[in-house]
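User: Show me a protein chain along with its predicted structure.
Assistant: Here is one chain, sequence first, then structure tokens.
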Amino acid sequence: MKKKIVLPLFFLLIIMAGCNTSTPEKTNEVVARPESDGPVDVLDSSKSKMLEESIKAFAVGNMDQFTSAMADDIKFYYPAPGDSLVGKAAVQTYYGGRWKLIDSIKMVNPTFLAVNVKRSNSVMPGEWLMAWYSFQINYKSGNAIFLPVHTVAHENGAGKFDVMVMYYDMHKPMMAQRK
């Protein structure tokens, strides 16, 4: 008799477990790992907001907001010859001038990451904020380019960027727009 009751109950439990329709809540938030003994720690995703806001301001031509997170003596590097700048005022002046040629910029597929470099033989220690995205740039001349970009910024410990580097693919359409 016990076997006749236990076997149907067992199958009933299996069926009920298979019918569980609840799913865990999905989130895009990246949670920082506990600090490790390794040379680099991944930081909470909220740390990259400063870089995200700066790049978004650049994409709408707001040079004051773009440079608001920069230290007065920032070292700003671009891979193109002559585009490396020192100082917030120099960044505002140069890119404000570039915006005179630009009609609009759309940032596409941005991804952000913040890390703390504790020790390295080749990289300055501290918080590094990184971004990968593309810009769809429409020029007033009617030309347009699609530009993949990777940006790296070092936070100086006082809430400002002291180094920023923007890497991009220097293909022919970009070079034509620089003239």
